[in-house]
Amino acid sequence: MKFNRIGIILIGCALIAIMLVVTLLVIRQHDSQTAQIRTKGVGLVKSLSTVPLSLLRDGANGGVLASLLAYHDDSGFAYATIGDAGGRILAEVAGKGSMTPSLPLPASAAAGFGVRDLAAGGGTPALREFYGPLADRSMGPVFVRVGFYQPRHAMPAQDVSFLALLALAMFLVVPVIYLVIKREMAPLAGLSDQLRLLAAPGKADAADAGDVRETIGAMQRHLGQAGERIAQLERGALDTTADNRLLQYGSRKLNAALQSLPDALLMLDPAGDVTFASGKIEPLLGIPMERILGQPLESWCCDPVLRSLIGRFSGDLRDNARAHGVAQAVQFAPRNVDGRQLSASAQPLSGGHGTMSFGTLIVVRDVTREFLARQAGNDFVAHVSHELKSPLNVIGMYAEMLADSDDETLRVESLNVIQDEIERMNALVGNLLNVSKLESGSMSPERNRVRLDDLLRDAHDQALSRAEGKGLRVVLDLPRELEAVAIDKDLFRIALNNLLTNAIKYNRPGGSVTLSARNEDNEIVISVRDTGIGIAPADQDRIFDKFYRVSEGDAPLKRGGHGLGLYLAAQIVELHHGRVVLDSEPGVGSTFSVHLKIVPAPAGAAVL
Amino acid sequence: MSARRILLVDDEPHVLRVLRLALEREGYAVATAADGHAALACMAAQLPDVLISDIQMDGMDGRTLCPLARATWPDHPFLILVMTSMTALDERSWARALSNTEFLEKPLSPRQLVARLARHFAALPSSPDRPSEPPHAA
Questions:
Q1: Cβ pair B56:A386 closer than 8 A
Q2: Testing the interface with A: which of B23, B56, B58, B64 to mutate, by most A Cβ within 10 A?
Q3: Residue B12 near chain A (CB below 8 Å)
């Protein structure tokens, strides 16, 4: 059995321990006896050596030596003798049963005290002899010798009971330890026994089985409790993981939001180094990301305006900028990207109600469109004022001439020119108003089903009067039947007039303008054809742009265009979901064709 | 004493016509050109005392013509008058480096132009009988 084995081991250990203790005690006692004998022996020899010889000799059995008999009770004392150098004994006293050995003294004895061991032999046990010369040298050199029995390794009787008690106490501890261990291990041992009984089929009786059930039930309860606790801990860990994932998800979402912002972001730490840069920064500034992140400002920022803005938010000037607490914005054209205008604004990044500073946030925005729009607006104003000043200039000069001249032909000429220039200004102002309406979105066509015949005839008549003065023919070519289209009559008239004005203006003397219309598939095509100077291929793409005017290097006359007519015509046609097609050959002429979709007439719809 | 010669450059024919009439009535010899190329051709034939030019012109504009004329005839001290409508399109900084060059603001009054020219010629040493200059540019 396991426990018996433990018990035996414990008992063995206890016995070994007891034996060790006893041995140590005996050795220690022997040593102390030896030391005791030495003290006694040396002391006795020294004290005897000072005694006068006469005292020692007189009354050989009743003198000073006799008093040494007090030692006779000491079981260790063997003898004490006074003898001369020849070994003659002058006086002696011996312990019980002791015989004085007659060994001669060594030569060194005359010089001083000494000690020697005398081996056992001849019925005499081993002795230790102390010797020394006598101070009284009245009879020549005389020596005193004292002998003691060598102590033996024996257990003194008075110590036996103490040792027995010690051994008993140690031996009693063993069963206590054994019992404690056995008690602690008992349930496990019992379980093990019972399980073994169960495992051996046919041997388990009902009572044992009951105990097993009870123990196993208890164990199950404990196991269940432990399991619940583990599950609880696991749930906690799971919650923490879920929280972490949620946090990670949130952080990723935030990062995605920052990355997909239309503006580029730069975050600077308080020292002015970039700690975050959104992906948009790369195309905007034309600087690769790895050159920006964590690099000193001077090494990546090659735009002095941006550098000075960032510099204001880092280093010594930082506090100053922060003290003002306002976002600062600059606009610049990046060095590495052509034709772009960027605006950059900087503001301090602070959290915790302004107590914490995370550095600076720089927002870089592409403002190219706004910049171009603003520039276009400025250009527009410049163009318009220029276009208005030109006719005004002519009118002013002719008016002055009119006032100063008496010449009748000059007066007529002046009046005509003034009239023309007023018309030119009027057309410009009218077109400007229309463009303004068009661009503000307030020009919404009121589309009605219209027969084009009347509209085209009106336009032809108007063009005729303008063309007459220039010696141009205006031809109207209409088919017998034209499909109705849904258009805003007033707007469409503007478009048509602009096309006709253009055809007259850029024609050559003696040329012609043809206004025609035809049905074509699902469309009606209205064409304005001139026999003018034509439009170079390079200009054809831009001819409908606002304020675009064809360069007329070899044109003999200034045409007085203002770059709005064709733009407006095209825009109006577009409002009607149509398109303008240009077909031109320089030197021969141009044809502008307006394509409009034919709208099937709803039953009973009125045609204006 | 030969008449003072004036070269008018503008792509607006009405302007050329009115100014020519007004200046000829004052006894000036007037030549006209519709753009810078024509003007340089005129100057090569005969140098004027005054060059009056518009800025915005098709072909060679005033911004190119005036410095070119000065650079081509550096020894000839003709006055340059530039007509400007004072808008952003008539950017004028280019003329700062040109000597003896002034601006005339549109709308231009022929009467004021005549008075301006009279003042200019009155300030010059009387009747400089110029030798006819050999043309440098074709």
A1: yes
A2: B58
A3: yes
What ipTM was predicted for this assembly?
0.84
> Residue A502 half-sphere exposure, CB side, CA atoms within 13 Å?
30
The CATH number given to A2-149 is 3.30.450
Q: Prior bond to A600 cis, omega within 30?
A: no
Query: Residues A112-135: pLDDT tens digits?
Result: 788 888 777 766 778 888 888 888
CB under 8 Å to A135, separation ≥6 — which residues?
Answer: A49, A50
Same fold: A2-149 with A369-443: no
Q: How far, in Å, CA of B98 to CA of B66, rounded?
A: 8
Type of residue at A316: D
- How confident is the model over A291-327, as pLDDT tens digits? 888 777 778 888 888 888 887 776 554 455 454 555 6
Whether the CB-CB separation of B34 and B79 falls below 8 Å is answered with: no
pLDDT of A293 = 83
CATH architecture of A445-597: 2-Layer Sandwich (3.30)
Written as one letter, the residue type at A517 is: A
DSSP string, chain B: -PPPEEEEE-S-HHHHHHHHHHHHHTT-EEEEESSHHHHHHHHHHS--SEEEEES--SSS-HHHHHHHHHHHSTT---EEEEEE--STTS--GGGGGSTTEEEEESSPPHHHHHHHHHHHHHHSPS---PPPPPP---
Is B11 close to A558, i.e. CB distance below 8 A?
A: yes
| Cα-to-chain-centroid distance, residue A246 | 16
Q: Are A485 and A444 in contact (CB under 8 A)?
A: no
Positive/negative CA dihedral, B133, B134, B137, B138: positive
Which tokens hold the place of A473?
């023919």
pTM as predicted: 0.49
CA atoms within 13 A on the CB side of A182: 14
Scored b (16 or more CB within 10 A) or e, A130-146 reads: bbbbbebeeeeebbbbb
Q: Which residues of A touch B (CB under 8 A)?
A: 378-379, 381-383, 385-386, 389-390, 392-398, 400-401, 404-405, 410, 417, 421, 551-558
Q: Which CATH class is domain B5-123?
A: alpha beta
CATH for A261-366, among 3.40.1160.10, 3.30.450.20, 3.40.50.1820, 2.20.25.90?
Answer: 3.30.450.20
Nearest to A570 by CA among A499, A477, A472: A499
d(CA B59, CA A446): 43
Pairwise CA distance, residues A350 & A343, whole Å: 22
pLDDT score of A396: 92
For B28, other C-beta atoms within 10 Å of its C-beta total: 20
Please state, as a whole number, how many other Cβ atoms lie within 10 Å of the Cβ of residue A455. Answer: 19
- Which architecture does CATH list for A369-443? Orthogonal Bundle (1.10)
Distance from CA of B132 to the nearest CA of A (A): 30
What residue ranges of chain B have pLDDT lower than 50? 128-138
Contact indicator for A332, A344 with CB cutoff of 8 Å: yes
Q: Is B13 on the interface with A (CB under 8 A)?
A: yes
Interface test with B, best of A386, A387, A419, A506 (most B CBs within 10 A): A386
CB of B98 closer than 8 Å to CB of B74: no
